[in-house]
Specification:
homodimer; alpha+beta; Alpha-Beta Plaits; 2 domains; 5-stranded antiparallel beta sheet; 4-stranded antiparallel beta sheet; 4 helices; about 40% strand; elongated
């Protein structure tokens, strides 16, 4: 069994102190490491949306999803089905630039439809969005220029078509 | 004292099971509600970056930052200084479209440099990035068309210029 399989869980929870701690404990108790977690308010201010990417045994994950559903603050918890959803991630990269690589750096940014958000004599900070594979690909391509800093949002998902996630 | 002041904390932590739970508990114990939290790996795979937006009394926040620094997994925890940082957020909006509003919806998307990521007969899903105020402004402008669903990444921050966050 592939124990390193990546899973994405989408949740809707009541926006109350302590919710995140209870959710995180469900994963910690089973030794699941969370690759990324995004929690922020949804359109309705009383509820938050969480998107969690984690790795581990699929059978244990089923138990985790069941436990997440049992939490009093949870209104909805489900594993993400790739074909029925759009996946997006935001990343900010601060890259080193020297005169010899400047043109090449901006070409890569352009190909990835990156947006320059800040610039200094020796660095450029760029915003990239896309699915996680695209952000990974950008990271590998710019790695040899020198990544001074990188911060990623983790995965956000939304159902395709007219239906709700 | 303004107890509803918003604070943004940037952290760097060891990427281990249980870290998130311990961080969330620091906030929960003091009854601080977390508006948004983003955790995902940084450029170095052994460390994660967390960006946390919360509300509460500034004096209590100082205590929280001190406690966060004391956690064994924390390498860095600091409150964000707006002038020295770039702030970005990603949001996905699924909007209702009917023939009468279609042109207007796409005009608003265009003004905000939104990117259409999915479309159906009755809906359009759009990706918007910017600081939190810009995402809030987009939300208010499209609200009357009908927001079927919205998911936001929460705030990501990166230091301006050549220095590290």
């Amino acid at each position: 069994m592939d124990t390193n399989h990546k899973h994405t869980i989408s949740m809707r929870v009541h926006n109350r102190p302590g919710v995140l701690s209870r959710v995180a404990q469900v994963f910690a108790r089973r030794g699941f490491n969370i690759d990324s977690l995004v929690v922020s308010r949804g359109h309705h201010p009383d509820f938050s949306r969480m998107t969690i990417v984690c790795q581990g045994d699929p059978a244990a994950l089923d138990q985790i999803v069941k436990q997440l559903r049992k939490l009093v603050d949870t209104t909805h918890a489900t594993e993400y089905v790739p074909d029925e959803s759009v996946e997006r991630e935001l990343a900010l990269f601060k890259l080193k630039i020297v005169s010899e690589t400047r043109t090449e750096v901006f070409q890569v940014i352009d190909v990835f439809k990156g947006r320059t958000v800040d610039i200094s004599d020796s660095t450029v900070t760029v915003e990239v969005t896309g699915d996680s594979d695209k952000v990974d690909a950008f990271e590998s391509l710019v790695n040899h220029f020198g990544i001074i800093e990188m911060v990623r949002s983790g995965k956000l998902i939304i159902a395709r078509g007219a239906k709700r996630t």
